[in-house]
Write a structure and sequence with these properties.
Layout lengths: L9 H8 L4 E6 L5 H15 L5 E5 L2 H20 L14 E3 L19 E4 L4 E6 L13 E5 L6 H11 L5 E4 L5 E3 L9 E3 L3 E5 L7 H6 L6 H8 L6 E5 L2 E6 L12 H7 L3 H7 L18 H4 L11 E6 L6 E11 L4 E12 L6 H12 L6 E5 L15 H8 L18 H12 L4 E4 L2 E9 L4 H9 L1 E2 L4 E2 L2 E3 L6 E3 L3 H13 L7
Helix pairs in contact: 2-3, 10-11, 12-14, 13-14
């Protein structure tokens, strides 16, 4: 394909030119993703007809009523490829879901042509709906274009589609990057085998964690947001065998009604606009427990300062780990901020998932600085433990921290505050809407979490809201079969800290 004949906007061109085996093409709605599927599939059909391809969408309705409609339009407009009909269009170039007529070249033959697009030159494309992905197990393909996979199961991609990309013959030139077809008996020197899969999707209503993890998007969240929210910029990144291109609807604005984007934005919330127009994958969803948390704003390196007291806060669930967060607070006179800085998390799994173990780990790390320590946490930690007489979890804390505490160190409440009220109070902090006096000036309360606190960050990002509090999703330990709550523990500890630390402002 000559790039000067087929016109693509810059992000589309970057996706088209990607030679990584796996490419994520994520964009706002109506940004031209399906158009690009049509361009790329048309190129494969005309230039590598012996290579079997696949065009897939999350559901059969999406595939037939949206994806293939757009793709076939591109085939006709850009390649003059039309559907064959014996009477209405006898010079057509492809048939769908039916055995090809006798004058079509036969490179591949099938007993049943349901779900297959057959072309005049012998090329074939499998149509696939990924809601029934196991139906495609066993097929051998050379390239795949997946449309709107944000709701697709991870197994559909990893266990079926990527495993099927094994047909040899497609290569790209190491110097020019041009894609060509080569037979086994041809010289392959200077060429790299190429079985590409491109995931074309807009962001989901929530966050598709397996997809963001696969392309390591969390690590670049701030850079992505800064890029896509500028109508003249987009985000592109290559890492190992993967490429990521994320861009907004603005890049396809010239193909849309003049006021399309303005009208859409006027009818969307800020978070909806970030997803549906700007293509940003991390906008907060309505089901998120912490609706005001954003990694780009609340996560950055925190340096421990030996001259300041340390606040420890506990959650006493033992599975999947026992939780202890270590933090410091300080008034930043230059920024007029009261900063709550979480610099370390201790989330210790068995056999170290005990109050004693997490506290001793803290002392091993920071006892050398002889810090003054305050401790917070779950009020139930001061209830008597079964079989231990009057001994409590916090008695263990007091025993181990004796050299570092005083009578003023105990900040544990008699009773835990309501979970939704705690969340709303934390959201006020996250939204920079809580101010505290310092001298004659009001300082904004700011939460900062060090990037090393991965469990706390995951809690703030992925924890969902249930009917009466946190939706603590269950996972099963693969070794013991024991079920435990995946999220909610580190955020509990954080809430205990913030709500007691700022108790004077809790009801305000």
């Amino acid at each position: 394909m000559d790039d000067h004949i087929i016109k693509l906007h810059t992000p589309q061109l970057k996706v088209y030119q990607s030679r990584r085996p796996l490419t994520l093409n994520m964009a706002g709605q109506r940004a031209g993703k399906s158009h690009l599927i049509g361009i790329k599939s048309g190129f494969y059909v005309l230039n590598a007809p012996k290579i079997k391809g696949m065009i897939a969408a999350n559901t059969y309705m999406q595939l037939t009523q949206s994806t293939m409609v757009a793709v076939r339009k591109v085939w006709q407009q850009n390649f003059n490829l039309t559907e064959y009909d014996a009477k209405g269009n006898p010079h057509g170039h492809y048939v769908i879901d039916k055995k090809p007529p006798g004058h079509f070249k036969k490179i591949h033959e099938f007993d049943n042509y349901k779900g297959i697009v057959s072309f005049l030159n012998g090329a074939i494309i499998f149509k696939a709906s990924l809601d029934n992905y196991m139906a495609h197990d066993g097929k051998e393909i050379g390239w795949a274009e997946l449309d709107e996979t944000k709701d697709t199961k991870e197994e559909a991609l990893k266990a079926v589609i990527l495993a099927r990309l094994s047909q040899p013959g497609l290569f790209y030139n190491d110097q020019t990057l041009q894609i060509i077809y080569l037979e086994d008996n041809q010289d392959h020197t200077g060429f790299t085998p190429f079985n590409p899969c491109c995931i074309n999707t807009s962001p989901a209503v929530g966050v598709v964690k397996w997809l963001t993890d696969m392309f390591e998007l969390q690590e670049y969240e701030k850079e992505i947001e800064e890029s896509v929210t500028d109508p003249e910029r987009f985000y592109y990144h290559e890492i190992e065998n993967k490429a990521v291109c994320i861009y907004s609807t603005y890049w396809n604005e010239h193909h849309l009604p003049d006021n399309y984007i303005d009208i859409r934005l006027s009818n969307l919330s800020e978070n909806e606009g970030l997803k549906y127009i700007y293509g940003f994958p991390f906008g907060r969803s309505g089901s998120s427990f912490f609706k005001k948390f954003t990694k780009s704003e609340h996560v950055r390196p925190v340096v421990y300062k030996p001259e300041l007291p340390i606040s420890l806060t506990y959650d006493f669930n033992a599975k999947p780990y026992m939780t202890l967060l270590a933090s410091q607070t300080e008034y930043d006179r230059n920024a007029f901020e009261f900063q709550i800085r979480i610099f370390k998390e201790y989330c210790l799994a068995s056999p170290h998932n005990s109050t004693r173990a997490v506290t001793e780990h803290f002392v091993d790390d920071y006892g050398i600085y002889d810090p003054f320590v305050l401790f917070y946490g779950d009020a139930s930690g001061d209830y008597r433990q079964a079989g231990s007489g009057d001994h409590t979890q916090f008695d263990t804390v007091r025993e181990i921290l004796t050299p570092y505490i005083s009578s003023s160190s105990d900040k544990v409440p008699k009773k835990n505050k309501n979970v939704l009220n705690r969340r709303d109070f934390v959201d006020r902090v996250l939204e920079l809407k809580l101010k505290v006096p310092y001298g004659n000036v009001e300082y904004t309360v700011v939460l900062i979490i060090d990037p090393s606190c991965k469990n706390l960050i995951a809690d703030m990002q992925w924890l969902k809201e249930g009917l009466d509090g946190k939706l603590k999703e269950k996972e099963k330990d693969p070794d013991t079969g024991e079920k435990y709550e995946k999220y909610g523990h580190t955020s509990d500890a954080l809430e205990y800290l913030i709500c007691e630390l700022l108790d004077d402002y809790y009801q305000k």
